[in-house]
Amino acid sequence: MKPNPLLEVYFDFDNTITGFDVLDDIILRFSVDDRWKLAEAAWESGEIGSRECLERQFTGVRISEEALGDYIGAVRIDPAFAQIVELLAGVGIRPVILSDSFKSVISAILKNNGVSGIEVFANEMHLEGSVPVLEFPYFGSICSTAGNCKTSHLLRRGRPAGTRKVYVGDGRSDICPAQFCEILFAKGSLYQHYSAIRGNCFHFEELGTVHAHLKTLIP
After folding, report:
1. Where are the domains of the chain?
2. What is the CATH number of domain 7-19+77-217?
3. What pTM value is reported for the model?
4. Residues 167-196: tens digit of each pLDDT
5. Would you report the helix, strand and coil content of the chain in percent, each value rounded to 5?
6. How high is the mean pLDDT of the chain?
7. Most CB within 10 Å of its CB: which of 17, 107, 182, 216?
8. Residue 61: is its pLDDT beyond 90?
9. Strand 164-169, strand 183-186: pairing
10. How close are the terminal C-alpha atoms of the chain, in Å?
């Protein structure tokens, strides 16, 4: 194994490791009405935080264990993510996933795609019949609006002096944690936010771009 190049690598999940927003798609497919759109609009405008948005949206979601399992089983991830995991493992680095989605959903998708051993910090969900019950184990650690405060996970992790943090993401919930990382890979609204104000913001659409760049950081 090569020596660790003093990097920590963090990934968003939806629309970063996957090619679309799985959480939004679950809400769209399995909601009994369109009330979720009102919560989405309130979140987009900054009126409410992500926890309240999810709580409002999932009041209208009804899904059985079987239907959820079938749905999760059909989700594919970017194939380059497994290559990144393998590359980082060769220098003793385990990437971390930070997400506003649910750990059980993320872990199942990764397993179905042949990826294991990844640390995931996310919200939690279980079903009581067809009714989703949400849990927010990381709520309120720094901010009082995000269901899962991604920034808190970056700041609480011990690291040797000189360690650089790498962040890979795409959206609004990634803006805060990205500012605490020395290297940023971004697309979507995250790239729009940072591309003009920081030089170490690299655009990507697929994770193959991230994989190629990470190879240059590892001696």
Report:
1. 7-19+77-217
2. 3.40.50.1000
3. 0.93
4. 999 988 899 999 999 999 999 999 999 998
5. 40, 20, 40
6. 92
7. 17
8. yes
9. parallel
10. 12
